[in-house]
Design brief:
Radius of gyration: 31 Å
Largest sheet: 2 strands, antiparallel
Low-confidence stretches: 1-17, 25-31
Strand content: under 5%
Order of helices and strands: HEEHHHHHHHHHHHHHHHHHHHHHHH
Shape: elongated
Structural class: mainly alpha
Distance between the termini: 50 Å
Strand order of the largest sheet: 1-2
Number of strands: 2
């Protein structure tokens, strides 16, 4: 998982905070920290309204460089700093950091209401230009003048780039004290776990806060990743059950489905079956768990029930496959299985079902040409699938296209070998084809 890579986690955090923070505008009051801002005297400019309309039109048309330049001309003509903010904000989004640094260095004034965002953009531009020391100084000045969550995040993220993890942790903690959001909490926990050798503290921090943040899925996933690294399977199962109940009780269907996927990844299949049955969850996860634990009759019965309730053709296809796998005499069940799959494929282009039907038609010599055409359609969607290529080779063999069959099968065997018994049988037959 991504959390296992310390450097990747830090890079992600840097990108996350800066892209979210540096261009964010805040509402200005006339007083900050009991200080009154100085007013900047504007200059009259007769074409101001025209330039404004032109700049807005350029933004609307996504001609951002032109808009940036128009806003800068507005600033030069009017001395209104909101236009400078618009210009350098656009330049930041365009990654024109040389422009940003030069413009702010020349025109930045102390104690005006735009000073905060200009300092933030200035610091960011210097960081991107590898002027880390200057970026750090300006960010420290920023938080000294305007100590808020956003600016603490900027300074802390600069410390991250310098690998000053304790400093970054301390500043993020100040930001969290002001506004305890999930992203900052995740960042602090990450630093503690990966960089500061305080793994248990990081784990406890997430455990204590998950309920407060309504089992935020990303925080939950981070905690599971920590447990995975610590090899604590019991806690993984416990937190997944907590997530399951919370999302189900709050009708968070997307997150519930995501949690079920995590169950399948982390939890033993017999435990999944017990938990699903206990909580009357009837879905494809339970079907798959039955099949994995060799309980085909339960899988078949559940699929029948699910199909009767939903008339979902995908379920009908799965039912057909399970029925075929279960049949003691497969030849007897083939007509019923083919009928179901043909119904499904009238409205579906699912390559799994195309290949399965193709194999039946070829292997039982019911319509070899149709089977070959079907598996070719499946290969259009998944061209490197070994099972599909095997089906095609087997079909070409049945059509007596020996060279084609040999060529396809030779590539398969060269890639995966002869461990699979069915591949081995097909290969032996195809080698004898003349």
């Amino acid at each position: 998982m991504p959390w296992n890579n310390k450097n990747l986690a830090i890079v992600f955090l840097i990108a996350l905070f800066f892209t979210a923070c540096v261009t964010k505008k805040i509402s200005y009051d006339t007083k900050v920290n009991n200080r009154v801002f100085e007013k900047v005297e504007p200059k009259p400019f007769e074409l101001e309204d025209f330039y404004i309309m032109y700049a807005l039109e350029m933004e609307n048309e996504r001609v951002y460089y032109e808009a940036r330049d128009v806003y800068f001309k507005l600033f030069e003509h009017t001395n209104k700093y909101e236009y400078l903010v618009n210009s350098v904000s656009l330049a930041t989004q365009l990654k024109d950091f040389v422009f940003v640094e030069a413009a702010i260095a020349k025109y930045l004034r102390a104690n005006i209401k735009e000073e905060e965002i200009l300092l933030r953009l200035y610091s960011f531009a210097q960081l991107k230009l590898d002027k880390v020391e200057e970026a750090s100084k300006n960010a420290e000045k920023l938080v000294a003048l305007y100590p808020n969550e956003l600016n603490y995040d900027v300074l802390a993220t600069i410390y991250l780039t310098q690998k000053e993890y304790q400093k970054a942790h301390d500043i993020f903690s100040k930001a969290f004290a002001i506004s305890s959001n999930a992203i900052t909490l995740s960042t602090i926990a990450n630093l503690e776990f990966f960089q500061l050798n305080r793994q248990q503290e990081a784990v406890s921090k997430l455990e204590d806060n998950l309920k407060k943040y309504d089992y935020d899925f990303n925080l939950s996933l981070q905690l599971i990743a920590f447990y995975e690294i610590l090899k604590d399977e019991k806690k993984i199962e416990y937190i997944l059950k907590e997530m399951f109940f919370y999302y189900r009780n709050n009708d968070s269907q997307l997150q519930l489905n995501n949690t079920k996927t995590l169950f399948w990844k982390y939890i033993k299949k017999d435990h999944i079956i017990d938990f699903w049955e206990e909580n009357r969850e009837k879905d494809d996860i339970l079907v798959a768990a039955y099949r994995t634990t060799n309980q085909p009759q339960k899988a078949k019965d559940l699929l029948k029930e699910l199909y009767e309730e939903s008339q979902d053709k995908e379920i009908l296809a799965e039912l057909a496959i399970v029925e075929f796998d279960m049949a003691p005499n497969k030849k007897d069940i083939v007509p019923s299985v083919i009928e179901k799959l043909e119904i499904v494929l009238q409205s579906s282009n699912n390559h799994i079902y195309q290949n399965f039907l193709a194999y039946l038609l070829i292997d039982y010599e019911l319509d070899i040409k149709k089977g070959v055409d079907l598996v070719k359609k499946a290969l259009e969607q998944d061209a490197e699938n070994i099972a599909y290529l095997d089906t095609l080779a087997w079909g070409e063999y049945k059509l007596k296209n020996c060279k084609t069959a040999y060529s396809i099968m030779k590539k398969i065997i060269d890639e995966v070998g002869l461990e699979d018994e069915e591949l081995k049988q097909h290969w032996e037959k195809i080698k004898e084809c003349k």
